[in-house]
Design goal:
Layout (H helix, E strand, L loop, with lengths): L1 E2 L2 E2 L13 E3 L2 E2 L7 E6 L16 H7 L7 E2 L8 E7 L2 H8 L7 E8 L4 H9 L2 E2 L2 E2 L4 E8 L4 E8 L6 H8 L4 E9 L2 E2 L9 E3 L2 H7 L4
Parallel strand pairs: 7-13
Antiparallel strand pairs: 1-2, 1-3, 3-4, 5-7, 5-15, 6-7, 8-12, 8-13, 9-10, 11-12, 13-14
GO molecular function: catalytic activity, acting on RNA; pseudouridine synthase activity; RNA binding
InterPro entries: PsdUridine_s_RsuA/RluB/E/F_cat, PsdUridine_synth_cat_dom_sf, PsdUridine_synth_RsuA/RluA, PsdUridine_synth_RsuA/RluB/E/F, PsdUridine_synth_RsuA/RluB_CS, RsuA_PseudoU_synthase, S4_RNA-bd_sf, TruA/RsuA/RluB/E/F_N
Family: Belongs to the pseudouridine synthase RsuA family.
């Protein structure tokens, strides 16, 4: 290996992003980071690959001409729709998923039954699931249909436990019929209103996600 024209034989030699590195005479280039925002459709897997051959969120971008190696940040269930970030920036992905950064995500849920004020109070206090109480959710009752015995609720959480929104609502007696994520850390689906649409993130949006705001 050569660094800036000098042969390096010592293990553990540190290099910077600005160093020119050759291995067997071939230059090593840093992978350029790419950032995308997707409006995930229902019936698509939140993964880069699926052993069962089902369509993934990465497939949607590949079909649209993206050739970069990218991965989804976090997951949305197979039947859940809405905003997702895909990137090859592992440091950013880890930041967004780490609990200490309390990244807020807002969901719209259509649920069975008429949601009462007491149900909303429980959601705001937090729900005990598997012996552990979730953080309280910000929530708003958006619509109630007495005829159909359904309700629509907006919930904002900053945790990411397995099936958390569905399990919280089921715990207060209102199983989820449809779930859509409309906001992720302040980003919305503006510009990509239809399921399956996607776009690159703007530099200022990336800076926001990195906490540089």
């Amino acid at each position: 290996m050569q660094v800036n024209g000098q042969v390096i034989k010592e293990l553990g030699t540190k290099v910077s992003a600005n160093d020119e590195i050759l291995v067997d005479g071939v230059p090593i280039q840093r992978e350029q980071h790419h950032y995308y925002l997707l409006n995930k459709p229902r019936g698509v897997i939140s993964s880069a690959h699926d052993d069962k051959g089902r369509k993934t969120v990465v497939d949607i971008l590949k079909d649209g001409g993206v050739v970069d190696r990218i991965y989804p940040v976090g997951r949305l269930d197979y039947d859940t729709t809405g905003i997702m970030i895909l990137t090859n920036d592992g440091a950013l992905a880890n930041r967004l998923m780490h609990p200490k950064f309390e990244v807020e995500k807002t969901y719209i849920a259509k649920v069975k039954g008429v949601v009462k004020n007491d149900d909303m109070r429980q959601l705001r206090r937090g729900i005990k699931i598997d012996g552990r109480r979730t953080k309280g959710a910000k929530c708003k009752l958006m619509e109630v249909s007495d005829d159909r015995q359904t309700s629509r609720v907006r919930l904002t959480i900053h945790e990411g436990h397995y099936h958390q929104v569905k399990r919280m609502l089921k715990a207060v007696g209102h199983p989820v019929m449809k779930l859509h994520r409309e906001v992720y850390d302040g980003l919305t689906l503006t510009g990509i209103p239809n399921a399956g649409e996607w776009r690159e993130l703007k530099p200022e949006e990336v800076a926001h996600l990195k906490g540089m705001h």
